[in-house]
Amino acid sequence: MSQEPLHHTLIKHFESCKLKPYLCSAGVPTIGWGSTFYPDGRKVTMKDPGITQEAADALFRATLAPFAQEVSKALPGASADDPRVGALTSFAFNVGVTAFKTSTLVKLLKAGADPSGQFIRWDKVNGKSMWGIHRRRLAEAH
Predict the structure, then answer these.
(1) How far, rounded to the nearest angstrom, does the alpha carbon of residue 62 sit from its chain's CA centroid?
(2) 59-62 long-range CB contacts below 8 Å, 24 or more apart?
């Protein structure tokens, strides 16, 4: 049995899997392992039916692709087992592709500077620091 990539393990450590739609701490409809949209691009709604654990795992793998692609652009040539890929994919999955692409964190990374101090700046939801997200950012920075 193969081991999950680091970003899967890291994300699953900080996301719980819920088989029915729920509102995340930012008030966004979410399902499974923190998925806010389906592979076909539809957003999750609170009226969506529940899913099975197998469907949640498949949804997680499928919806992770755009985040991993953006990380690949930020770290060209990095292998999937590079810890930076895991940390950045977890970060991008949580903050969203647009926020990730335009972040100072990515700008520093592309400039060859150490971006680790930038992770902790992203520990807020609606302007309020959240302990769970703070812990996640510390883990990603590490």
Answers:
(1) 13
(2) 59/31, 59/32, 59/33, 59/35, 60/8, 60/11, 60/12, 60/32, 60/33, 60/34, 60/35, 61/8
Q: Respond yes or no: is residue 70 known to be catalytic.
A: no
Q: Exactly one of 15, 17, 70, 140 is catalytic; which is it?
A: 15
Is 17 one of the annotated active-site residues of the chain?
no
Query: pLDDT tens-digit profile of 95-135?
Result: 988 999 999 999 998 888 988 899 999 999 888 999 999 99
3-state secondary structure of 78: coil
Q: Provide the Cα torsion 50, 6, 83, 61; round to 10°.
A: -40
pTM: 0.86
Residue pair 115/106 in contact by the 8 Å Cβ criterion: yes
The helix/strand/coil state of 2 is coil
Q: Considering 4, 24, 70, 140, which one is annotated as catalytic? A: 24
pLDDT (tens digit, 9 = 90+) per residue, 18-50?
999 999 988 999 999 999 999 999 999 999 999
How many angstroms separate the CA atoms of 71 and 113, rounded?
16
